Every structure is written in structure tokens, then in C-alpha cells.
Amino acid sequence: MALNGDDKDFFDWEPPTEAEMKVIQARKERQDKISKLMGGYLLKGYRMLGDCCDVCGTILLQDKQQKLYCVSCQELDSDVDKDNPALNAQAALSQVRERQLAAQAAAPPALPPAPAPELNEGPSTSQASVLVPQPRPEHCEGAAAGGRALLPLPAVPSPTTPAPTPALVPPRAPVSPQSPVIPPLLQEAEEAVLIKLRWATSQLQSSASLETSIQLCSLIASCANSLRSLKELSQ
Amino acid sequence: MPPVERLHLDHVVQTVCALESVVLRSFGPEGGQVLFTRDTGQAMLSRSGARILTALRLEHPLARMVVECVLKHSTVTGDGSKTFILLLASLLRMIHKMACKEPNVSHTYTSRQTAEASTARHLADKILAFALEELDDLIGMGVIPYGCCLSWEDFTAKKHLSGPSNNDCVQKLLTSFFHSRLGRSHCDFISKLTYELLTHWKFKRDQPSLSLEFVNDNLDALHTPVSGFPISCSRLIEGQVIHRDFATPCPQTEQKAVKAAVFSGYLQPKLLNAGQVLQLGCGEQWMEENSKNNRSIVQFSAWTERSLKCVFANLQSLGVSVILSAVKQSAAVLSLAAQAEMCVVECVSEDELSLFAQLSGAKPVSDCWMVEPEHVATLTFCRPILLGAHRYVHVAFNDSEERVTVKPCSLVICGLGEGQTEQYTCAFRDAIRMLLSTWEPMGMTATTASKRTLQSTKSTSSHVDQIPNVPPFQQSGLQPGYVIPAGGTFEFLLHHALLQNGTSCSASDDIVTSGLAVSQLLANALLIVPRQIYSHSPRHFLQAQARFQTIIQNHSHPFSLVYKQEHSSIFGESAFPLEEDKLTKHRFTEADVSAKLFMSDSGLESVSCKYQLLLAVLQCLSSILHVDTVLHTHTALHTQSRRLANTSWEGTDDETED
């Protein structure tokens, strides 16, 4: 039996390292949180089903409207939520930055130095500046692959702004006075915002959780605002 | 969903932990209450674990299994449902942790989860085997010396001149039970009422627990729930209350004693039932004389009514004026009874009739043609009583020689609403069950007795000269009725005893470090109960733990230190060293303890109930860990699929299939 195990197995087993201990601890805390949440929902009248969630393996709950609810997927921050743009401002920021960087790399190489000084003035007037050539490394685990390729561009000191702004304001184009450079940039920004809008709409249609829906609605609202200001800019 | 589902240890732990978090907030004397609401708008507050768990909507088969175990346990002991879940969750977590630490890869198991599951199963079985063999010894050695035995003989005797005695202990036991179930405000009142009821119902000549069993069996007939009044209106009523009203007007007969007869069948036989064919015939002589009138149903029913008059004449000659019937009598019977000035009570339940028969000494009439004097009961009175919105029949019995020690009485339980009244009734019922299981002896066999004498020599050598007068273990183990202070005392003491037992086992036995592991696992899992009781303040938990360590080391009585604890602000300082010395040298008899008990405020709980709870938890744990497959079946009647849990001893099958 495993308790009086064979000697050769003992040699294979090592005590967990500190990193593993942290992981174990984090997992235990997560399980405690899940149990607590589940208990709260059971007391509220949710039904505990005999099935498990396909994604995370937690026991599924069903509310009175017969909708399925997974406590860990829909409420707790899972490992993948950090990269989900609808739920995380930083991920959204980094995704837009990725796009901008991709567009700039495709644009003629003479252009990047020109807009850079304008961009330096621009962000001082507008609150949330997005066209930072270098993405901040601590923001994008998911966007890291796209960002690091373009690191050699000079760092701009403006990027303190994304941190204090609340969620989902970012996709706003900066005010930039130069007209020949503007249209492709504006178009690019508009396109990005439209894509995001479209994505958010499709997510909203299929969303089952209240919080996700609220966040998606605010994302759509801010996309609409950004589109409006982009249109004002281009006029 | 797949038709066959493997059940993993993680799922088991998650399910039970979810149930634990449901009951956690209501646990303990400081626990909160759960508000139940219905779609009709009815609301109810309750703290009862059984009620909370039954109200949950659970479709998970394991969760349902656990809740069923809890309910079964609660039907027997009346208490401990939340503690059950807490202990189960704590043991599962410990087993999970231990199973995960074991070596991953063993050549017999192909998947890690199967290895974990089988380790867990093995551990659970070991713990159960250990508990079945050695737990009562451990309790006898480690817990009972710190307890106090409530002997039944003193239960209802008149107050001793020596001051507070067992009566207060029993009442304290009841009070702490009601406190945890119903809240602080009315627990004293209700426990006093319960105690009075039990005092009235004590059969002196019989075995003491028989009267408790009698009350438990006849509880439905012995209480009347009345809603619409505050709880303080509850009272005891002399005699028996029959929960039906008079079917005929009751004549006023206050002066003389009333005679009653109990009928279990119909006075006028019902001959025409649906689906039956009645064939009428009559004698030849009659046929010849009244040829046109024969074989008529009208003639026949007239004949039956004439025979009824004979029955009533017979009853009148015996002096019967009250008829108690188990069934609904026909209109002819009622009108004849009214004419004869007898009152009839119909549709009395079986329980009440049997109680009536027992108390009055009269046998129920089976054949209405043969009513003998032995079927006639003499009552002091039989009159209507108005309780709440209902009118019932109130009877009182003549004192005869057999019953001179028993004063039959009935309890009226009042509550502000129906839900509340029902709660009080359930609490009352559970209190009786709890008392019954307090006096149940903990199982002991000849082998354990011999083991005990061995261990007693070992342990007395370690506590040298501290207790010269410890009672022999055989005696203390067999006597039921032990109580200890509430608030985690049992768990602390058993924790210590288990750890000691573990170390002594590993020192002396070759067999197994797993014996030590089992004791340690159980000991650590037990601590969750006091941890949760003191969860509002972890500092109190540590203080309590340290206090019990001191008690155990000094081997003084826990009650005295509890008393001191309340009066001294600095923990650990014994302000009464003289008293402590005295206590260590004295025997722990009731006389010594009762004075301290009376002054200590901590409440009491029963050792036997805790022991049964622990055994039940370990058995439930073992059975849920033996489940490894869930088969989903579809039944024709239900739209959702119904699932069956399949308990299987599939250890070897798992390995080959995987």
C-alpha cells in the first residue's frame, strides 16, 4: 500500500520547493474561496448539481432561472482572466498597443521619428494616452510576444497615466495636430475600436454572468465614446 | 454528461467543504441564524443544522448522501448535525493533504488520482478501525475523569439538603442544549418546563431510562402545539389532551366521576362498501309471513339500528358517558348517543388511544356486542378545553395504586407563528432524544476491559501520585450519564489523549507508524470544533487550549478553573491554590463537583452523544471514500436524470481499467 510504500519510490519523491509551496498555498486559498462562495450561493437558493464545469472542474450550481453557474469561472480571477481584455484594463491597453505597434512597424520607417515629438506634447494635454511606442513590460504577459519585438524604440515618459485611469477608458486616440499623419492613425484607431466593439457585442449576447455583462456594456459605451471623438478629430 | 462518472478525491472534498461553509456561520453558541423564506411569503429563523441542510437544494449524489447520514444521526441523538459536517470536512481535508503527500508513482497505480483515492480510502478505514477498537477506552481514560456523572436516581428526588445537586446538572444540560438551538432568551424557561415534564413522568419502580423512552415514544400524544401566543405562555396541563373535539354536545357532569369506553371499530357495522356485494337473506319463517317485505335493504338497516339500541342500553347500564372512537361513527350512532346523553369523540389517533388505554387501564373494545366492565375507564373529568384556536378534549385520570408515582401531564407549547411553534416542538423532541442518548452506555466488551487494565498500569505510572483515588476504569467506563463542560472540552481532552496514545503506541508497538499517524490525524481534526466555537476571537481559542493543557498537566478539575477564569482577569494565575490541592486529592464525586458546577457558567454537554457523533462521522467518512463511480440513470417519471451513487469495492478493477 502506498503508506508503507516501496523503498524505491521514496527516492523519487522530494519535498516540494518553495515555489511549489506557494502554488499549493495559493491553490488551497482558492479552494477555500470557492467553498465559501458556493456555500453562500447554496444558502441563497441555488441548486448544487452533480456535474462539474468542463473548464475548471468545479461543481456547477444552477439558479432559479435554470441557468448554470460556475463559481470559479465566473467570479474568481482565474489564471487566464489576466489576459482577457473585457475584464482587465491592462490587458485591453496592451492589446491596443500591440495593434498600434504592428501598424507603426508596417508604416514607412520615416514616420516613427516624426510623430514621436508630437506624441510627446500630445499626451500632456490628454489624459489617457495610448500611443506609447514601448509597451510597459509589467502590463502584458499576453502581449509580450508582440511588444518585445519593438522594444528598441525610445521610451516615452508619459505612460504613468494608464495606471490611475479606471477600467476600459483606454481606446481613445490622442489629439495630434499633424493632418497628413493623422488619417491613417485615426483610421487605424477607428478600426481597432470597431473590432473591439464587435467583439464585445458578440460576447454580450452570449454572456451569462451579471458582472461580465456590466463590464461588456461599459466597454461598448467607451468604444462608442472613442469613435465619437475620433470622428470629431477627423473633421 | 457522461453516463458513468469517476469520482475524485477533490470533488469529495469540495462537496463537503461547500456544505461546511453553509453551516459554519450558524455553528456554536455565538452562531447566527438562517432566514428561510417561501414563495408564499412565510419567513422563519432557525439555527437547527438538520433544518438548514434539508432546505438546501442538492442534486449532487455525494452531498445528498452526506445530508442523509447527518439526518439519520440527528434522529438518534437529537443534536450535532453541524458538528458532524464540520468534523467530516476537517477529516477529509487532513486525509486529502496526507494522500497528496504520499509518493506519486507507485507501480500498481497508473494515475495519481487513483493512488490518492486508494490512500484516502485506506486511511479512512484505519481510522474507523482504530475508533471502533480504542476510542471508548481513550474516552474512559482521557475524558471521563474530568466529567461528572449524572445519576438517574437523583434525577427527580426531592431537593437534597446539601444544596445544589443533580437536578441542576440535568437542567444545565437542557439549558445549554436549548441555548444552542433556540437562542439565549427563552432557553431557561423551556428547559425548566421540560425538566418539570420529565419529573412528572418518572416511573419509580422501573428502569430509569424507560420513562425517558416512554416520553420519547408518546411525544406526539403528550404535547399540543398552539400558535399565536408568546413562548412564555407554554405550560403543563394535568392529564391528557385528546386532539379532537366532541362530536355530540357534552353534558355537564362535574360532580361525579366519568366513565369512558374506547372503541376501535364501528358501532354500526358498515356493510356496504364500494365494490362489495351484499346478499340479504332471512329466516324461512319470516319469509313466509312477510313475503313482500323480505330482502329489502331498508328492512336490514332498520334491523341494524335496533341492534344498536341494544348496544347503547348495555353501555348505559355500565354507566358509560364518554365514548372515544378511533373511526368516524355513523349518524345513527351519534343521534342515539345524544339521546342517551353520552358524548362521543371521533377519529382519535392510534397513539392517543393507546396512551389513554395505558394510563386508564381500560382495554379498547373490539366487539361492540361484548362490552365488559374491564373496558370501562374511570376518569376524574372529561371536558372541553380551548387551546389557541382549537377546542380539544381534556381528560384526567383517577389516581390508582399503579400510577401513584406518575402524574400524567401534557405540555402546551406556544409560539408566535406556526413555524416557530414547530421549531420549539422539534427542539423539545430533540432534547428528549439527547437525554436518552446521554444515558446510553458506551459499548464495551470483555477484550477492551482487559486491555484497559494493562493501560491503566501504564498511565498511572506516568501520572505519579496525582490521583491516588482514581476510580477503576471498568466502573467509570460502564456508567452512562457522564457530562463535561461545553465549549470544546471534549475535543481538547480527546486531542490530548489521542496524542498521548499515539506516542505510547509507537514506543511499544512494532507495527506501525501509521498507528501514530492515525491518532495524530484524528487529534488534529478534532480541534476544528473548538476553533470554530472561538472563531470570533482566535485569542480565546489559544487561551482555552493553554488552559486545558494546564488542567491536564495538573490533573485538577476543569470546573474549578472555569470558575476561576471568570473571576480572575489574568490568565493562568491561580488565585486559589489551596482549593486546587484539595481537588487533586479528592475523588471526583458529585458532591465535590456540584458546588463548583453550580457556579460555573459554561453549560454542559453529554459525553455519550459526542462519542456517538464521532463514530458516526468516521463511518460516514469511510463510506463516502469508498464511492468511486457514479452511474447516471434516467427514470421515466422525472424530466431530469436521477443519479445513483454506486458504492463499490473496486480497488483492483480501477487498476486494471486504468
Automatic annotation (TrEMBL), chain A:
Residues 100-131, 151-175 are annotated as: Disordered. It comes from the Eukaryota. It holds the Pfam family Auto_anti-p27. This is Protein ZNRD2. Residues 154-174 have a biased composition (Pro residues).
From TrEMBL, chain B:
It holds the Pfam family Cpn60_TCP1. GO terms for biological process: chaperone-mediated protein complex assembly. It comes from the Eukaryota. Coiled coil: none annotated. InterPro entries: BBS10 (IPR042619), Cpn60/GroEL/TCP-1 (IPR002423), GroEL-like_apical_dom_sf (IPR027409), GROEL-like_equatorial_sf (IPR027413). GO terms for molecular function: ATP binding. Transmembrane segments: none annotated. This is BBSome complex assembly protein BBS10. The lineage of its organism: Eukaryota, Metazoa, Chordata, Craniata, Vertebrata.
